[in-house]
Design brief:
- Helix content is about 40%, strand content about 15%.
- It is an alpha/beta fold and about 325 residues long.
- The chain has one domain: Metal-dependent hydrolases (TIM Barrel), CATH 3.20.20.140.
- Strands 6-7-8-9-10-11 form a six-stranded parallel β-sheet.
- α3 packs across α4 and α7 crosses α8.
- The chain is globular, with a radius of gyration of 18 Å.
- About 50% of the residues are buried.
Length: about 325
């Protein structure tokens, strides 16, 4: 067992139930709540409550929110949601794609201390503690000019700091990655050098990849494979993404595969050209139970294998992380 921090306090990992492994309750940018007209907290809270209710009705019991501070994390909204939704929400600490300039002179241990405050003391001066660490490597990880201050070097430094914090606090790491650039591989290299149990690491957005050898290779190294991008509902895309899950099942990696959408109940990112949030979609977290899981059943996945994808895989990441804690 492991204790997992949620908005409402710690719960036993055995109580997580079916999990949405990579989602966003609210996302945008750091400080968006201070810009007049940019962010509507009342609308964000209302949308979140509706989408969480729909997810709970669909059978989910836990949602992992992958929104660190610089992606617009709203702890004030978390405080209001904690007693108003039956869903267990695990919040994150970490850093998004472009490491803030304020972090550039820090060493890995200083970054680890920053993460540990969120994990052990509370976020933004509240008693709500993060339960997981989030990192993101995308196209910016290609930028290597600038020595120790290059974008790539900063991302690598933060990954090392995250590994040290994960071991100290006994929490897992989840990673947004650009699958086309196979960024799961260098991240796992760094984590292995830092002595992490790779079972406590989720390499996310891997179902963006069309290279099944890359996907299976991550699992063979012991990592958890996050198939946590699911937006389009056309038949071809449902089949393509679901077939990746089926390939992992058939290769014996159901226990190392988790499912999510990377969807937000409320987000100002990629909203309309005139500004404001994306259109409301209270069913933003329902494509997996209504499309992907039925596809998997039709194509031969057993109920035990589906349970591994939706429940046991994520539980195992928390338990592997807890076992690392000194």
């Amino acid at each position: 067992m492991a204790l997992v921090n949620t908005l409402a306090g710690p719960v036993d990992s055995a109580q997580l139930g079916p999990v949405l492994s990579h989602e966003h309750v609210v996302s945008g940018m750091g400080g968006m709540e201070r810009v007049p007209g940019l962010f509507d907290p009342a609308a964000a809270e209302r949308r979140a409550l509706e989408a969480l209710a729909r997810a709970h009705e669909a059978g989910y019991r836990t949602l992992i929110d992958c929104t660190p501070l610089d992606l617009g994390r709203q702890v004030a909204i978390f405080e209001r949601l904690a007693g108003r939704t039956p869903m267990q929400i695990v919040a994150c600490t970490g850093v998004y794609r472009w490491v803030p300039l304020s972090f550039h002179s820090w060493d890995p241990d200083t970054f680890a201390e920053y993460l540990l405050r969120d994990l052990q003391e509370g976020m933004d001066g509240t008693e709500i503690r993060a339960g997981i660490i989030k990192l993101a490597w995308d196209v910016e990880a290609r930028l290597t000019e600038g020595g120790a201050f290059s974008v790539r070097a900063q991302l690598e430094k933060c990954a090392r700091g995250a590994a040290r914090a994960a071991k100290a606090a006994g929490v897992p790491i989840t990673c947004h990655t650009l699958a086309a650039d196979r960024y799961g591989e260098p991240l796992l290299d760094l984590f292995a050098e830092e002595g992490l149990d790779l079972r406590a690491v989720t390499i996310g957005h891997t179902n963006d990849s069309r290279d099944i050898d890359y996907v299976l290779g991550l699992a063979r190294r012991g990592a958890t494979v996050g198939l946590d991008r699911f937006a389009r509902v056309d038949d071809a895309e449902v089949e393509r993404r679901s077939a990746i899950a089926l390939a992992l099942i058939r290769a014996g990696f159901a226990e190392q595969t988790c499912l999510g959408h990377d969807a937000a109940a409320y987000s100002i990112n990629r909203g309309p050209a005139t500004g404001g949030p994306r259109p409301e979609d209270p069913e933003c977290w329902l494509k997996i139970p209504t499309l992907q899981v039925p596809w998997l059943r039709v194509h031969g996945a057993s109920e035990d294998e589906i349970d591994a994808l939706m429940r046991r895989s994520v539980r195992a990441t928390f338990e592997a992380a807890a076992a690392m804690r000194g």
